[in-house]
Amino acid sequence: MSETSTAAASPPHATLGHRSPILRVIGIAISAWLLLSVVAAAWFGLTTPQTGTAALVQGLTLAEVLFAVALILLGSIVEGFGWGLSLGTRWPYTRNIVLLMLRGDPEAAHRMLATTVGLIALALAVLNPVQSSFVGLVLVLVTALFGMGTLYVLAGRAPAIVHGTHGLLAYLVFLDYLVALRLPGVSFPIYLEATGALHAVLLALFLGGMVTGQRGFGKPIEAFVRPRRPAQWIFVLHGLAALLVIGTLGWMEPLYPVAFTLALLQAGVGFFVFHAVNLKPRHPGALVVLHQSMVLLITSAIVLQWHW
């Protein structure tokens, strides 16, 4: 029996993902990223011209940005290596979640890191009661609730829009704290409304999450010429949104030259992800992590206005 037919025969509620050397290497890299994030945040807080609580807020904000990056990448590992239902639909914790994390369960690590991001968001709201802190805290809480919803999407008991919204919210958390770090005092909702380049990226991101949710756990999109299944129609919309990203960043290339180049490369990565999902629908692998990494780079290049 094939991988696809096995997944269809028994509704997934608790399914372990795929272990591989690549997964271990990525896991070690993210662990190193988290350690370096702590060091960088401490250094930033200690060397900033500000003192006292203001310096602590600066350090925590940088930590929140870097942890949000790791959290998104862990989510891509969960998806790429089929660990989304390793804890079933139980949320947020299980009795032995720390032990499972130490044994290398990416979903357990994802939830524990999400808790850390939530605690930092709460600390920032207390220490620095400004709009960006409260917006960030609310976004973290709502993202967590939609994270619970993604488990039911994977189990076939919730619509794909929940999955797409969860991904969108995760990036809004990242962007809120990145803008707070880059442009202190600027209202994130106003910044987001005024930055048209992000609109196209977030639309493509949302539709990409919907593709994952609509195809279902361990199921391929399947190659097609004319779309017939809902997942294929959403994939077409996702592709059109990707073209919109390229067109938008191409039009604004003087402002966002690095982001435009990354968007062109991302289109190629997306092509390979599509084929990986069809070849190994339960665990398409590291290409999913690369795909998500490119989105993080594109959004960062827009906010930070990277130039060559």
TrEMBL record:
Keywords: Membrane, Transmembrane, Transmembrane helix
Entry coiled-coil feature ranges: none
Segments passing through the bilayer: 21-45, 65-87, 108-127, 133-155, 167-184, 190-212, 233-252, 258-279, 286-306
Identification of the protein by name: Cytochrome c oxidase assembly factor
